[in-house]
Amino acid sequence: MTTGRRLAVLAAVVGLLMVVGCAAASVGEAASCRRSVHDAEAKVRVDRWDPPEELPGLGDYPGIHWQERARGNPCSWLPGPTDWAHQGVAVLHPQDVRRLVEQYEFVPFADSDPANLGHSTTPADVWPDLVPYLPTGARWLHSQSYDDASPTARDRVAFLDVEHRTLLFMLNDH
Q1: What angle do CA 38, 44, 46 make, to 5 degrees?
Q2: Which H/E stretch holds residue 51?
Q3: Hey, what's the signal peptide range on this chain (predicted)?
Q4: Structural domain boundaries of the chain?
């Protein structure tokens, strides 16, 4: 074998080892990323919603529980952002519930015609880890004007139970 061929073979072997080494490292990084995403999705958060403008009219609510879920693969090597879905249950002060009902014309959800809704989400679609925070025997109201209220950086769907002062919200990046 000539010296030129030996160098070419050596360069190919070194290149192949570099590719294999990088691939092995990236597999470990991908597994770590997936674990991190899984942990984040499983966590029920209690910190205040930020930015608060995404949930207009809630006031200084006394409690909230929410989660987030990736709608794509945030661990992908493909460029571009991953969209996220969020769901939550907020307990409101009585005056904030009254203001929401008056300002956004909430109506009984049970009377809503699903064909006229701008979404296909219902309170039955709440994620299992949030179910314990929903009121028993809730009578949900819905408002298309609240769902469409500014700002609309995310698709918003909300249901309000006046008696239990509870707002169930679902937000999706778009």
Answers
A1: 140
A2: none
A3: 1-25
A4: 1-42, 45-173
Give me the torsion for CA of 146, 150, 156, 162, rounded to 10°: -30
What is the token pair recorded at 30?
A: 């991908």
Q: Where are the beta strands (DSSP E) in 61-153?
A: 63-70, 84-91, 107-108, 141-142
Instruction: Estimate to the nearest angstrom the gap between the alpha carbon of 65 and the chain centroid.
Output: 13
Pairing between β-strand 84-91 and β-strand 107-108 as defined by DSSP bridges: unpaired
- What are 24-72's pLDDT values in tens digits? 446 667 778 878 777 778 899 999 999 999 999 999 999 999 999 998 8
- What's the half-sphere exposure (Cβ side, CA atoms, 13 Å) at 72? 14
- Provide the Cα torsion 10, 12, 14, 20; round to 10°: -150
**Least trusted range by pLDDT, from 67-71, 91-95, 134-138:** 67-71
pLDDT for the residue numbered 34:
78
Mean of the per-residue pLDDT values of the chain: 83
Of 150, 61, 171, which Cα lies nearest the Cα of 158? 171
